[in-house]
Design goal:
three-stranded antiparallel β-sheet; mainly alpha; 2 domains; 8% strand; hpI Integrase, Chain A; 17 helices
Length: 414
Amino acid sequence: MIQRRMRFQTMGKVEIPTYFILHADKDEKNAYFTIEATAEEKEMLDAFLKKKKENIEKGLEPTADISRVQLNTVNKLIEPFENYANAFIDMQNGKGNSPITIKHYQQTIKKLEYFFAYKWCVQRNLDYSVVTKDEKLYIGSKIPYGILEETSFEAQFREFLLEVENVSLQTVATYFRDYRVIAYWGMDEGLIRKKAITVKTVEADIKDCYTDSEIDKLLKKPADDCDFSEYRDWVVINYVLGTGNRISTITNLKIKDIDFDDNMISINTQKNKRKVRLPLELKLSRILKEYIDEWLTDEDGHYITEYLFPSVYTEDNTAISREALSKSIAKYNKSRGVSKTSMHLFRHTFAKNWIIKGGDLHSLQRVLGHSTLEMVTHYANLYSTDLKPKMENYSILTTHKSKNKGKKITRRNR
């Protein structure tokens, strides 16, 4: 393998990529980022640069008479990763994927750019930790997307996530599932060479759900002189423990989605994109009605916002964001003496309670909004130890009374 290099211009504390060339003077060695390239790729790039120069001198389009294969090969040597990533996101938008899914891919793209910036720092003996996030993202976005073809890329990316980003094995698997989609798209488009990418299956940790005593503290109704934020968060916790909805669903709920006559709610925002109507238990229905009447309705009986869980200020008629709600719930929990602060943990608590109380998995799948039984089966496996009392009470071996008659077999004396 020979080396492919990109040139950088020094700006501030770190060298920021501006444009790319193949060769460099020895004195400028530290101004280059080195990634792998084959001899054939180098030869093709040299021919491309020569042809491009000739076309410009003749007043032609720079890429005139250059084949698509040659362009794809050359592009991965000189086109920044941000162009590749933007094209991928455009494709996702074109497919009509949900904003949540697209945001998930964008988060993984950022991790890839952090990884590229880390490799850039390592080659310069720079301290990656002192580089700002914006600088890391800028540097990483300018690395040619051909870096995705590097030998041992997956092993290095996995090590970076574990050792530098300090994420769990489960999180690594999540990032790799996204990365595989991103890379396979490039392979299908002929932008990078085809290869198999394996995502290691990681056994999920058993979630430490909210205990009964913690739930008692969280469900204690706020005092009459509480502010809107506290009361809203109390209602949100009641709601999620009563429905198991995702936070993305909760923040998009509108008052009109509730049918108090039939005690039903229409769920229009789910990860699987399916719209469903789910029943509301009477206790939760009463809580929601009181909350809407007392907090979200003006003196003339008109709603002051269309959203069920708005932000504190309603002038813009906006729902509270996922991030803001998570922070607000964390603050609420701590104020009630509960150290657990995860919003998603309420969903796990709902699923666990459903399973240990004997609820069927097909109904749980529909309530939780999963496309398949895979995830609810996973919940059942996670919380199987909590089914022990049921096994003791309902096992056939436990409840069956023997009707055998006759002399019992006994151990002979030794």
